[in-house]
Amino acid sequence: MAEYQEKTLDLAPEALTKKDILIMWLRFYFANEIPHSFDRYIAPSLLWAMIPVLKKLYKDKDELAAAYQRHLLFFNTQISWGGGIITGLMASLEQERASQVYKKEEITITDDLIYNTKAGLMGALAGIGDSIDSGTIQYIFIAIAIPWAEQGLAIGALFPFIAFSLYQALIGLFFANQGFRLGRQASDLLTSSTMQNTINVLSILGLFMMGILAGNYVKVTSSLQFTISGKEFIIQDILDSVIPGLLPILVVFGVYGYFVKKGMNVTKALLGLTLILAVLGAVGIL
Q1: Could you tell me which of 21, 41, 19, 23 has the C-alpha nearest to residue 32?
Q2: Which helix (H) or strand (E) element contains residue 91?
Q3: Which of 172, 183, 247, 260 sits at a 20 to 30 Å CA gap from 227?
């Protein structure tokens, strides 16, 4: 009887701590795109992140193997907002499921519930993360660094990458902890109308930032000028009197339109833009 009780205790799930959540998040952060595949996308990254957590929760090998299989199904989301909240949420759900398994209670945290939670959140949270991080925050860091880059300082090139990486690591850790603490309530918070309004505000801020960057750092002017009846017409002066910065913003819109129609092929866009501007410069239009 004593031996049976000892074996039963050995199968008891261990309590997860903040250190476990930190390790889980850091593993996901650094392995995010490394095991990327077409059939699973970044599911192996999620599983790699959760392995230490799952080992603490499931002492039975069959249950542990089943947990591994649960998190190898297709998964893809944005790294900090999506990855942070979902890793924390998955740890919370798995902890609850492990407790039910150990106590031989009815399993309410089913495989379908776990996967459907991921599937329902990964797209919505990716949209939030892309809008805020890629659409706003990174441009703020770039705008801060551009004056340093113009002065030839190395920090101008390094600052956006370092600052953005640290920002994503810290905010992702915050969301992982919140996801674990709040459980399924966290998903309701992040998909609420308040969050959607916040996203709209930040999207507008991102548009302002793009306009500021284009107006100050995209330098496109016209050298075209001609004389009619003794009066000289300078095209750039005329454009500045009508809409200052018209040519730079047209270039930005042109590149954006190319990306919308042809996809984010940056190399082709740069080569095409260089060729077009070179031709227009050669014929004296720019």
Answers
A1: 41
A2: helix 81-102
A3: 247
Structure-token pair, residue 18:
């903040």
- Hey, is 218 helix, strand or coil? coil
Could you give phi then psi for residue 23, rounded to 5 degrees? -65, -45
Q: Which two tokens stand for residue 276?
A: 């077009």
Tell me what the pLDDT averaged over the chain comes to. Answer: 80
Q: Quote the tokens at residue 277.
A: 């501007």
Nearest Cα neighbor of 20 from 63, 58, 50 is 50
Alpha carbon of residue 104 to chain centroid: 39
> Which tokens in the block code for residue 5?
């009780």
Tell me the residue type at 62: D
Q: How far apart, in Å, are the Cα atoms of 274 and each of 20, 29, 236, 277, 281?
A: 50, 36, 20, 5, 10
Predicted confidence (pLDDT) per residue in 52-85, tens digit: 999 999 999 999 999 999 999 889 899 999 899 9
Q: Tokens representing 250?
A: 């047209």
Backbone angles phi, psi at 190, to 5 degrees: -75, -20
* pLDDT bracket for residue 229 (50, 70, 90): low
